[in-house]
Amino acid sequence: MLHFRGADAESQRPESAVVASYLIAMFVIPAFSAKLLRADPNAATKNPGSDSGLESPAWFESMFGNLLRLRHVVVLVAIVMLAGAGMTLTTMGQELFPPVDSNQFTIYARLPSGTRIEITERVVAEIESSIMDQLGEPDPDPEDEKDPDSNLRILISNIGVLMDWPAAYTPNNGPMDAFILVQLKGDPAKPNTFETVDALRERLNREYPSVEFAFDTGGMMTAAMNFGLPSPIQVQVSGFDLPTMQEIAGHIKRVIEDTPGTTDVRIAQRVDYPQIGIEVDRVKAAQLGLVQEDVIKNVVTAVNSSIGFNPAFWIASNFNHYFIGAQYEEQNITSLETLRDIPITGRGSKQPVPLRNVADFYRTTGPAVVNHHNITRVTDIFANVATGHDAGSVARAIEASLQSSQDLQVTADVTERGTVYDIGADYKDRGFTFMIKGETKTMRSAFWQFLKGLGIAGLLVYLAMVAQLRSFSIPFIILASVPLGFIGVVAALKITDTNLSIPAFMGIIMMTGIVVEYSIILLEFANQRVRDGLSVRQAIQEATWIRLRPILMTSLTTWLALIPMAIGAAGGEANAPLARTVIGGVLAATVLTLVVVPCLYVFVKREPATATVST
Hints:
Blueprint: H1 15-36, H2 58-69, H3 71-90, E1 104-110, H4 117-135, E2 152-159, E3 177-184, H5 193-207, E4 212-216, H6 220-225, E5 233-239, H7 242-257, E6 262-267, E7 273-280, H8 282-287, H9 292-303, E8 312-315, E9 321-324, H10 336-340, E10 343-344, E11 353-354, E12 359-366, E13 371-373, E14 376-385, H11 391-403, E15 411-415, E16 418-422, E17 433-438, H12 439-469, H13 474-479, H14 481-495, H15 502-531, H16 536-566, H17 576-604
Antiparallel strand pairs: 1-3, 1-4, 2-3, 5-14, 5-17, 6-14, 7-12, 8-9, 10-11, 13-14, 15-16, 16-17
Helix pairs in contact: 3-14, 3-17, 4-5, 12-15, 14-15, 14-17, 15-16, 15-17, 16-17
């Protein structure tokens, strides 16, 4: 796990626990055993093979003998089961982290571009009324609940954006935007977050058809792993011309909307925001001693302030600093006519000149916000995953639909940054591309790191066992317990309807370390009995019977301890896939190790030169 990099690396650091458990097993357990255990005074006179109770019963010898005679069939069945598990794995859902009910969610509401903020405020108030009608009145104090029937704890709305530094810290792009924070009580007897969101989504879209809604149910972990994006699926279009990028984004949006499992599909940036264009007559301005810069700075000062282009600071006695700049009082700019009368001055002018004397006004539309990625302009299309679907399967379906779209005719190009799709058709050779990013990109990167980590772990375990066992073949048999456990992993995930995720992959790696121990304690004892002169069959039969109890005890304690986590009672829903993965792998490896590994051992292990003849 030291191999992992990126946002998911810090959640996988078990080294200290492993070192501590090793030291306890090597020093503390032997000391307590020597102190507490009592030796049998007759042990020296007993025959370990008969009187000690370790001799296998007749029924076991008969069953085990039949198993070894059918060893070819046993190994073939195991291979078929492993192939079936691999095929099943390719059809399973994928997600970065399992959805966790955090009892809170965010509603993003967007009205038509250019809506005045007072109109937005009125509509948001109506939306709040609909939410309260659905959930009940807010009941913020958990210690003194006034409305037990309500499922609403807190309701906070944030409307519009202040066109200054705070604009960098809000998802709103203008006065037509708002986001509503909703916190639920978390009462198990009432609908959970996901059921509440599904009900509100249907109601709000029906009651407010002119408002574009999106819901974010992700908790803190998902937000951190997803770098704060509002949706798990993001398609980012790059190019130079915003209207063309908006047209391409419209094609992509329609493709995503037609893909099963998607909801809340929207284009983040708009290019239809109402604007007032100012066309400066440079000749008139020059005759009056003005240049383009003078006009722009005076207009910016009137509608905002001079801090943006000529900042000044005042440091108070308490060492707090404050911006100082010129700006008009807001009530003085009341109409377009007022704007026409703004006095324009410049270094070369002799007296103020009304703006109407050097410029013409016209109405137009433009972008409400312009986003860049690596200097290039981008347009983002976001989509949420509907309840009952997983982000990985939906993203793959979107990818396939976009690749087959006749409106786009894309060409895939795999780069270090990921797969970049060059857009063809009417946009061919014009430099427009798109990438599928967001949680999908992070998820695929994390999964690939886990696969590489699993391969490295297997290699290190093999090399360590080669040195310890002085054999190249026996370690291969020991590692066979890993794919045997993988069969149980797939079965457990499929039965519990659990998607592949980072916790599930962590469980696979943990399962690898656990199930390898079963084969080690089995084959190490078998090798010892072979060195004592027994035949291979006798040695593995005796080892299987004698090591049966410790293997079953280890397996039982492992999956019993993980049951509370597997059902979400300990560690929450986020760790449930990890526990289910380990339980499935341990159960399957326990059974299959006792069945398949002895057959493989008989296949690989050579008979000693002098072995006891079996009777």
